Amino acid sequence: MRIVLVFVFIKLTIFSQKVNFEITFTPEFNSLTLSNLVGQEVVYPKMGLSAGLNLEYRLTKKCSIKTGVGYGLKNYNHTHSGLIFSTDIDPQTGITSESKIVSKIIFSEIQIPIILKYWVFNKLFLTGGIELVCPFANSSERVIYYGNGTTEKISNSHASPLNLAPTFSLGYGFAIKDKLRMSIEPMFKYYLKDYTISASHLYNLGLRTTIRL
User: Fold this and answer.
1) Could you tell me if 147 and 99 are in contact, meaning their C-beta atoms sit under 8 angstroms apart?
2) What distance lies between CA 49 and its chain's CA centroid?
């Protein structure tokens, strides 16, 4: 029995030496790519954020894999102008005005990353992987501004219930003190499925800060 306990202790010790706990925080710009345009569409990027808790497991001296759970706040504005509704048409003279839809898109989301990390030099590393994303807590607002001066609130946009988002970064890591490290990573993330608007894809440009214990 003692031999078994010693063996288990040794295995746990080796495992703990290969595993690090991480806390991440990422301020970011959120925006959309657009295609299949109807009328005139403009996206106004806004600031969002992501934060998470990860476990990093070292595979080799230079390579590791990490996963965990995170929270994201996605935020951008979208204006769709040049639209023609019945209120913009006069039976006698035809089209007399144009309308527009102004959307303030705000979503929260749960993020589950699977990320590979490779140390290029002593303090410089690359990461690449994918995140499983589940949006929730839709706080968006959408308003139609009709050409005749009236307005109407309409139902919020709906993001895909599940999305996949490849993510890449280039990072610089350094020690704060013994067994406590910090890294800073410019990062890019792109959502593969439509995001609230048909044929649109959300993307993020951010600066991820990680505290590794």
Assistant:
1) yes
2) 8
- Domain definitions of the chain by residue range: 20-212
pLDDT value of residue 8: 39
pTM score, two decimals? 0.83
Q: Which CATH number fits domain 20-212: 1.25.40, 3.30.70, 2.40.160, 3.30.1370?
A: 2.40.160
CA distance 105 to 125: 34
pLDDT in tens, 163-203: 999 999 999 999 888 778 999 999 999 999 887 777 788 99
Give the pLDDT confidence of 139-153 residue by residue, as tens digits: 889 999 998 889 999
